[in-house]
Amino acid sequence: MSRSKYVWRNGEWLEVDLNAPRPKPRAPMIHVYESFQSPIDDSVLRGPRDVANHEREHGVIQVGTEKTPPRDTKPKNVKRDVAQAMKKLDDGSKPVVKMTQEDLTRG
User: Fold this and answer.
1) Domains in the chain: boundaries
2) Backbone angles phi, psi at 8, to 5 degrees
């Protein structure tokens, strides 16, 4: 079974050829790095390789570039969880609710 992809153009659905070569970019990506002084040790960093080595040396990362752990993609069994909670309540267990003073004063 082959997969298909469709796009809406000019009021109609058009099938996209997934095997067609990708078009060339209209504008090349150019990264320009100006030298700058490190706020950690005042050394001069001249490009991405210098920055990566410097971060590794000092055990730091740039905010927003950190790796995040993978998300749990397993579906949750909500029905089972609710059934277990209901059984605990039926058996006389009382739910534990921890509230702070801030929770109580929030309106």
Assistant:
1) 30-62
2) -95, 115
